[in-house]
Amino acid sequence: MQQVICDSSTALISRRQQLKAAGESRRLLVGITGGPGSGKSELALAICREVNRVSGQEICRVVGMDGWHYSRAELDKFPDPVDAHQRRGAHDTFDAAAYHTFVERLRTSSGGDTIRAPSFSHSLKDPVADDIVIGPEHQIVLIEGLYVALDVEPWASAARLLDERWVILLHEQLAEERIWRRHVASGICNDESTARSRAVNNDIPNGRFLLSRLVDTTRVIESVEDPVLAPNSNFPISAPAPSKSIPEPAANNPALVIASPFFQHEIIDKVIRQTPGTDMKTTLALLASKVRLCEDDLASTATSSGDDKPRSIEKLLEARMAYASCLMEDVQIGKAEAEALKLLEYGKGIERQNGETEYPHRTIQVARKTQVYALDLLREIDESLGKQGRVKRWDEQKAKLLERTTRQEAPSS
């Protein structure tokens, strides 16, 4: 994750300088969301340290959303206190209105004032009021927490006041593995079976709830294992969890949000679709992530029967075509050509396998569409380079492909 930390800090410093150049004195506000036990706190702190190091002064401050937990005394006043304590960490067990007021003040202030935020004490198991000081020197504020991008009011209104909303993705199967191991290591559960049950029935559904209700995100980060982000504090209460503090082992610390492959695809597509101004580097990174997700999906269907494998093939081909188009648009001719050649061979391979595998008609259509796309792209590349011999070759292959398609799809007499 070191590259993510460096890239993030550089981007934040640049964004703040742009605000300053535009005559805006307000602070830059960034929300970082992650699932239960995601390591988002450690990632936020690492980015903050890097921003301050590069800047040569303390211009960045991290605020944890955990400070807006209702206290235990306040939970005692709920209609069902027992249920409220058991669910502590659910979005309705936070003082969301107070959090919204805080973010609104951050957004509307000139940046030259001092604002205080609560923290969360794991020894007291309660918030500590006004414990975090955001001074005039803190021109970048990172707010990390489970619900900083939740599309449920008033969280959603607060989220839209942020300049950036980042979400960190991890494949659900890996998330489950990390979570149950953490539960056993921390003593929450005594054995793997109980720990897996807790992960599957509590943590994973909570992550799905979050990812199905996100305000438009501006950046997607893929999780990787990284000991650099090993936590040095107790596990923050940021989702329904036992009331005791939980030391999180360094070996299992992810910077992640729990995401099923379906939701990962949805989020990446949403970011590309709803942020047309996204720079080409970011778009390429998102599309490359989507290709990898599609490859993982296809690999997981290797022994599957039914419709899973054909659909995974179709999604992979569509993702690779989008990626190749973006490479071409970014004038990365060599990479675009290599991607086009892969697509051409992949499409041919699907057709060759069809006799044995009996793919659905739509899958064969996508495979042929992929070949036509690849041939057109290769033709465009070689024509721009003046390679007329190769242009003729691609034209001939396309003509044969279209003739074969017409012949095979013609109704039999």
**Which quaternary structure do these chains form?**
single chain
Q: How many DSSP helices?
A: 14
Distance between the termini: 62 Å
Number of structural domains: 2
- Total strands: 8
Kindly report the CATH topology of the largest domain: Rossmann fold
Radius of gyration: 25 Å
CATH H-level superfamily of the largest domain:
P-loop containing nucleotide triphosphate hydrolases
Largest sheet: 6 strands, parallel
Helix content: 40-55%
Percent of sequence in beta strands: 5-15%
Identify the CATH class of the largest domain.
Alpha Beta
Runs in which pLDDT lies below 50 for 5 or more consecutive residues are: 227-260
Shape assignment: globular
- Classify the secondary structure makeup into a structural class: alpha/beta
Can you tell me the CATH architecture of the largest domain?
3-Layer(aba) Sandwich
